[in-house]
User: Which sequence fits this backbone?
């Protein structure tokens, strides 16, 4: 059971970390696009260009770019926090969860075939440790 929790935590944490990195890269790209759009608006209409109707469409697009940048930044942060929690939980489970007593047949491994014979039937019992 402990190994399943540890492996699951590592897998989930790794996926969350990868998602956080991808979202951080996307957020940085969106931030650059928003800054370029802002510089273009200021160059063409001055620092108060968004107060007039002539730049409404461009300013609305700029607002959307800032919202998208903020959303992806927040999702990246959530990915990193989730990764930290999952990886930390996996590490704690590995360190603090007792491994338990080993099974008596754990060292043998492989497959066992044992005949089962009664007064009315005969058969085989197949088992193993994997």
Assistant:
């Amino acid at each position: 059971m402990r190994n399943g929790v540890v492996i699951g935590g590592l897998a989930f944490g790794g996926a969350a970390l990868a998602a956080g990195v991808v979202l951080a890269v996307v957020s940085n790209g969106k931030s650059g696009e928003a800054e370029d759009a802002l510089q273009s608006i200021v160059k063409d209409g001055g620092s108060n260009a968004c107060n007039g109707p002539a730049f409404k469409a461009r300013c609305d697009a700029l607002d959307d770019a800032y919202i998208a940048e903020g959303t992806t930044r927040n999702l990246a942060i959530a990915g990193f926090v989730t990764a930290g929690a999952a990886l930390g939980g996996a590490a704690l489970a590995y360190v603090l969860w007792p491994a338990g007593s080993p099974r008596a047949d754990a060292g043998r491994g492989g497959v066992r075939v044992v005949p089962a014979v009664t007064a009315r039937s005969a058969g085989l019992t197949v088992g193993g440790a994997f």
Remarks:
- The chain has two helices and two strands.
- The first strand starts at residue 110 and ends at 117.
- The beta strands are 110-117, 122-129.
